[in-house]
Amino acid sequence: MSRTEPSDRPGPSDRPVPDTLLTARGIEKSFGENHVLRGVDLEVRRGEVVALIGASGSGKTTVLRSLNGLETPDAGMVEFNGGPAVDFGAQAAAATGGWGVRREGARQAKADRAALRDRSAMVFQHHNLFPHRTVLDNVIEGPTQVKRIPRATAVGRAEELLARVGLADKRDAYPHELSGGQQQRVGIVRALALEPDLLLFDEPTSALDPELVGEVLSVMKELADEGWTMVVVTHELQFARQVADEVLFLDGGVVVERGAPAQIFSDPAEERTRRFLDRILHPLD
Amino acid sequence: MDWQLVADSFWPLLRGGLVGTIPLALASFAIGLVLALVVALLRLSPNRMLSWIGRAYVSLIRGTPLLVQLFIIFYGLPQLGVRFDPWPAAIIAFSMNVGGYAAEVIRAAILSVPKGQWEAGWTVGMSPVRTLRRIVLPQAARVSVPPLSNTFISLVKDTSLATVILVTEMFRKAQEIAAFSNEFMVVYTEAALIYWMFCTVLATGQNAIEKRLDRYVAH
Ligand SMILES: Nc1ncnc2c1ncn2[C@@H]1O[C@H](COP(=O)(O)OP(=O)(O)OP(=O)(O)O)[C@@H](O)[C@H]1O
Ligand SMILES: [Mg+2]
Q1: Residue with CA nearest ligand 1 atom 4
Q2: Which residues of B are less than 8 Å from A128 in CB distance?
Q3: What's the whole-number mean pLDDT along residues A129-147?
Q4: What's the CA-to-centroid distance between A184 and ligand 2, angstroms?
Q5: What would be one Pfam family of this protein (chain B) (predicted)?
Q6: Residue A36 pLDDT more than 50?
Q7: What are phi and psi of A121, to 5 degrees?
């Protein structure tokens, strides 16, 4: 499961690789009248774990989905080291132009979306495994269908990854035959099998029974220790505190506060952060 | 009751069913399903023009009698210089009809697959077309087996209408035998029983298919 070097990525290989993997600036997004994101900045360095916390509806999922093309922001930009660099403001502007501009803009937007998507992999809140495929087929779907890796190679790697998360004996099971924790671990393996530069997690444990949360978090912790770059939306403050290198608190469509977990959790600078943490840590007070 | 007539007419009727009714239904259903998938995708298209075409097609097919559709294709089109033999005319009419009805079934089945499946397909690197083919349609297929079986069973019975455009299927055989023997009650009842037999066998087949596909669907 060790990281493969991204040497096959386009980009200047003679310069030392800069530290930053991903930069997002000024991300804005409205759903109708609902102005959800009002200029979110985000920077993720290689090998770093960034935790996104915030109240329900604060836009955490929308930020995450803006990073892999599942959501198209109205403005702002997302740039990966080595490409792509996507300017959503320019996309939005092209969409209001003449017919030729719109058509070229739509073509560019489609290419941008796919290019963003190709740098990362996502673990969903509700795993979203393919129910009609076995565990193994779920894992090798991307590698064999999209990356054209020979089936035997892909199966070998999938089996290795499944063994790493303790699911070697489940390779031929269907998703509905697994527990929630096992399903989510398969979801993680499916993401790892794509060998992405960035792993995106959207509250991967919030749909699980409490006793199943630990097995998923411990896999994620191992990944962090191995040096995977991760952006994790989570309500598990304990996990964020132990594993994250940086915590971002999102509220009202902006990042209200960011910093090392020790600082955010023990000594938040902002009143809003303090209130949010209080509500989560002392829900009955 | 003329048991001799019942016995004598059984084989010609059954044969009419096996070489007329069933092949006609099977061919029309196969072609109709392909058409239905196309129409369903048109309806689901974000392009308003395409989606309008899909909707108009479904509306026309469902809003007009099958018998009239048959007449237009077999008796009407020749006046515009388009002439079909009875069999092709029947297959065209029935396929187009299945295309309209099954399109709605397929559309609903595609919409019933959770959005998260499309998104998961996207994040593992698949194009929307590939996701549709490998992820969404197989799941939609399971959902659409019961309603599509109903469409097929209706079609088997509806093929009796083809007798009016001179296709020799089971009901046309029944009409010939009845006219010849004057035993309308006996012969038509016998034909009805054979239709019923066909449909019962099909319903059993439907159950078997559902069971098979159930294997991997969450309960
Ligand atoms: N596709 C959509 N259409 C309309 N509104 C949406 C859509 N997706 C999100 N929203 C709205 O955007 C806001 C932010 O949603 P988002 O899912 O990003 O929040 P979140 O921080 O992830 O919340 P939660 O903790 O509940 O998952 C919410 O008000 C939500 O209703
Ligand atoms: Mg969310």
Answers
A1: A31
A2: 114, 116-117, 119-120
A3: 94
A4: 16
A5: BPD_transp_1
A6: yes
A7: -140, 155
The crossing angle, in degrees rounded to 10, of helices B3-16 and B184-214 is: 50
Whether the Cβ atoms of residue A172 and residue A99 lie closer than 8 Å to each other: no
Q: What are the tens digits of pLDDT across the range B75-95?
A: 999 999 999 999 999 999 999
Neighbours of B157 (CB within 10 A): 16
- Which CA distances in Å does A123 have to A26, A104, A114, A233, B216? 25, 32, 17, 10, 22
In the beta sheet, which residues pair with residue A199? A121, A230
The SS3 call for residue A165 is coil
Centre a 10 Å sphere on the Cβ of residue B48 and count the other Cβ atoms it contains. 8
Query: Smallest CA–CA separation between A269 and chain B, in Å?
Result: 36
- Give the amino acid at A17: V
User: For position A139, what pLDDT does the model report?
Assistant: 97
Position B214: which residue type? D
Mean confidence (pLDDT) of chain A: 91
Quote the tokens at residue B1.
């009751």
Contacts of B107 (CB under 8 A, 6+ apart): B40, B43, B44
Residue A178's φ and ψ, nearest 5 degrees, are -105, 160
Q: Please give the average per-residue pLDDT across B102-117, as a whole number.
A: 96
In this structure, are residues A121 and B125 in contact, taking their beta carbons and an 8 Å threshold?
Answer: no
pLDDT over 90 percentage in chain B: 84
Q: For chain A, first and last CA: distance in Å?
A: 44
Q: Which two tokens stand for residue A89?
A: 């403001």
